[in-house]
Amino acid sequence: MQTSRIRLGLACLFIAWLTGCASPANRQALVVSDAPAATRHPYSVSVSTSGGGETGSMDYTNISDEDLAGAIEESITHSGLFSTVIQGDGADYRLNVSLINMSKPMFGMDFKIDMEMAWSLIDARTGDVVMREAINSTHTATMGQAFAAVTRIRMAVEGAAQENIRQGLEKIAALKL
Amino acid sequence: MKLHDTLKYLLAVLMITATLSGCAINKATSTVDPSADLSGLKSFHVEKYEKDKRDTNVVIEDKLREMGFQVADSKTGVDAVITYKDKWIWDITFYMLELNVSVREPGSGFPLASGTSMHSSLTRKSQEGMVDEVLTNIFFKNRKEGATNAN
Question: Is there a contact between A120 and A154 (Cβ–Cβ < 8 Å)?
Answer without folding.
Answer: no
